[in-house]
Amino acid sequence: MNWQKVEDSLISFIQNEHKKTNTKNLVVGLSGGLDSAIVAVLALKAVGKKNLNTVFMPTNSSSQSSINDAKELCEKFDINYEIVPISDIVDSYFIDKKATNLRIGNFTARVRMAVLYDICNKIDAVVVGTSNRSEILLGYGTIYGDTACAFNPIGNIYKSDEYEFASYLGITKNIINKKPSADLWQGQTDEEELGFSYLKIDEVLKKVVDEKQTKDNLIKDGYSKEIVDMVQDRIVKNSFKSKLPNIARI
Hints:
- The protein has 250 residues and is an alpha/beta fold.
- Helix content is 54%, strand content 7%.
- The chain has a single domain (3-183), classed as Rossmann fold, CATH 3.40.50.
- The chain has helices at 3-21, 34-47, 64-77, 87-93, 101-123, 133-138, 159-169, 173-177, 190-194, 198-210, 215-220, 225-237, and strands at 25-30, 52-56, 81-83, 125-127.
- A four-stranded parallel beta sheet has the order 3-2-1-4, with helices on both faces.
């Protein structure tokens, strides 16, 4: 892929979409992971240091490596950042309550987005999305949490393709080499939750979505029934997450 062309296109996209919002600044939530790192660097190139604000929002379950990786990225590219701990909000809500990791994770993602939007109100900004194409198609994200944004520059890039793009952009090695994780609870990783690597998932996604291949053809080509069923089921079940709510006609 011509990453120079992709970079130029996405920078223009950010500039054009930002102009439409009539706001002064952009806000990107940093996780210490690949998606937000790529978006932060693209946004920096699009609007410059003065008009970009990045925010890291750790909880008690956030890994120290994520904090360190986010700081390292910002220091390398000279990106403004602030750290807003949200442990007190999350912990006080779930006190004396039995909650699953999924509940805590979804609530955490929504608190983070609430913080980002409040910062936007304070500094006249909009939130830039950081969900990749794989996550969007699978519905692997929290609605009104990490999926919320004014616009999304990487929503058409598959996760497995981002690694090459990140290398081209000069993203720090620790971020490129780490296991994908939303860092929503201790030890959480995307691929463990999904049951397959992004490389395998994206192979199937590209054949199902881009090439319109059927389940029978995929299994005939050697893909396991388990991964094909997982991909197809998620696409159907979670498609509502990437659409505006239906409004009744009267």
